[in-house]
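Protocol step 4 of 6: structure prediction from sequence.
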Amino acid sequence: MLDRSVYKKIRQIEVRSRKAVNQLFAGQYRSVFKGQGLEFHEVREYIPGDDIRFIDWNVSARLGHPYVKKFIEERQQTLMLVVDISASQDFGSVKQSKNETAAEIAAVLAFSAIKNNDLVGLLMFSDKIEKYIPPKKGKRHVLRVIREILFFKRESKKTNLPQALRYLNRVCKKNAVTVIISDFFDIDFEKPIRVLSKHHDVIPIIIKDRFEKELPKLSLVDLEDPETGNIYRIDLSDAVITEKYKNHSQNETNKLKTFFRSLSLDNLELTTDGNYALPLTKFFKARERRLKH
C-alpha cells in the first residue's frame, strides 16, 4: 500500500508528464527516435532487381526457384531508461532535486512510449547496479518506474557509470532507445558509451543544478561532497574562486558534449529549475529534423 504522500507525488508527476507528452511529441514520437531495424515478414519469389543478399537459400533449394526474405520495419520499440541515483542526485537548490527532475524526464519519455505501445525498461545505478526492471508495456508499469526512481532506497552513495553501461549491454540484447539520465560526474565511461552506441540509439541527458554551474554569492561556507562525505570550506565572496569554478564547470560540460558529438549522439543539458518542457521540445524537434536528412 502506497503512503498518501508517495501517491500524491507520483500523481503530480503523472499529470505534469502527460501534459508535456502532448506538447512534446504531438503524434510525432516515432519520427523522433531511430528505427529499431527490420523484422522478418515472409518469403516470396525472387523478382529481378531484388537484393541477392536476402535470398533464402534453404527455401530456394527446396522449391527449385529463388526466393527472398521480405522484412518490415519493427512496429514496437524498446525505451531503456538508465538513471543515476547516486548521492549527488539528491542535490537541488531551486524547485527540486536532480533526482526529482530525472523522474519527471523519465516519466515524459515513458508515457510517450506506452502511448505508442512500446516497451519501457529501467536501470538504476550508483557504483553498483541498484535495480533493473525489464522492459514492459502499460500504465501500471510506467507508474512503477516513476515510483522506483523517486523513492528507491539506494545501497551506495557513489557512482560507477561504466559498470552500468556494461551491464546494460549484457542484459539488453534487442536494440533500444537508451536514455542515460545523469549529471555524468564520473570518469572512464567513454569506451562503454562508445560500445553501447554501436547497438543502441543512445541519448545522454545531463541533469545539473544551477549552483553546480555557477556558485552563489555568499560568504565563507562549508560544502560537503555527497558521495564521499568530504567537507570543503570555501569563501564564496572571493570573485577569483567563483570565477574559476564557473570556468571549470563550463569547460567540463563542453568537453562532455564534444565527446558525445564525436559519437554523433544527440545530447541535452537540463537544470533543476523545473523548466524542462521547452528545451526538451526544441531538442526533439531538432533531432526529428536531423533524422529526416
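Step 5 (inspection) to follow. Residues 4-32+79-292 form a domain with the Rossmann fold fold (CATH 3.40.50.410).
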